[in-house]
Each structure stands twice: as C-alpha cells, then as structure tokens.
Amino acid sequence: MAFDENLAASIRKALARKKGIEEKKMFGGLGFLLNGNMCVGVWKNSMVVRLGPDEGEAALFEPHVGEFDITGRAMAGWVMVAAEGVADEAAVQAWVKRAIKFVGKLLAK
Q1: With 80 as the cut, is the pLDDT of residue 107 above it?
Q2: Which pLDDT tens digit goes with each residue over 26-77?
Q3: How, if at all, do strands 78-81 and 46-50 pair?
Q4: In 10 A of CB 96, how many CB atoms?
Q5: Helix, strand, coil: what percent of the chain each, to 5?
Q6: What was the pLDDT predicted at 94?
Q7: Model confidence over 76-95: pLDDT tens digits?
Q8: Topology, domain 5-103
Q9: How far apart are CA 43 and CA 47, in angstroms?
C-alpha cells in the first residue's frame, strides 16, 4: 500500500520554513529528517511522530494515537497517529511542532 500523499503534503507545508529538513522514502512510507535525525513520517494513512521516551509514552493516552509498531516490535519514543488524528492541517502542524521540540535537541548526523 502506498502512503497518503495528502498527509505528506500537509507535513511538507508544516515543515516548509524549517531548515535542515530532508525527505526520504523509508519503511514503505516517507520520512522527514531534521538534521539527519528522523522526525516525522507517513506510513500508509497514518503519521509517524518521534517524541522521545517521556512525551511518547504520554501521547499514547491521546485519541487516535498508538505505538509505532510495523515490525512486531514497538519503537519507544515514537507514536503513530491514525488518519482521524491528523485530518486537518492544524493537527498535523501540532504533531510536527511536538516532534521538532524533541528532535531539534538531538545532535546532527
């Protein structure tokens, strides 16, 4: 299954003014890296968001959010937001902002 191009476009728009962004096809979807570190992505029709261990754990209690697990092993600090949770650009922007808050603190690769 291909990834949701509309969601990818919304993410691109949310990241348009951010420096250090690279777009890369990965894990059967599309990833957006900040300074070489994976930040957000699209997998099928869901948004993948890297929040770090504490924020990621807390986000699991929010509506439409689940573990990022496409291999049978969940990735700590990452969440997957179902299409219903990123149905509008404001929601996408909010998730992107949260991811940048964490990933922006990581050392560049």
Answers
A1: yes
A2: 888 999 999 999 999 999 999 999 999 999 999 999 999 999 998 899 999 9
A3: antiparallel
A4: 23
A5: 35, 30, 40
A6: 98
A7: 999 999 999 999 999 999 99
A8: Aspartate Aminotransferase, domain 1 (3.90.1150)
A9: 6
Domain segments of the chain as ranges: 5-103
Q: Are 50 and 9 in contact (CB under 8 A)?
A: no
- φ/ψ (deg, to 5) at 98: -65, -40
Strand order in the sheet with 78-81: 21-26, 29-34, 37-43, 46-50, 78-81, 65-67
Tokens representing 49 are 């968001």
Separation between Cα atoms, residue 93 and residue 91, nearest integer Å = 5
**Euclidean distance between CA atoms 54 and 71, whole angstroms:** 22
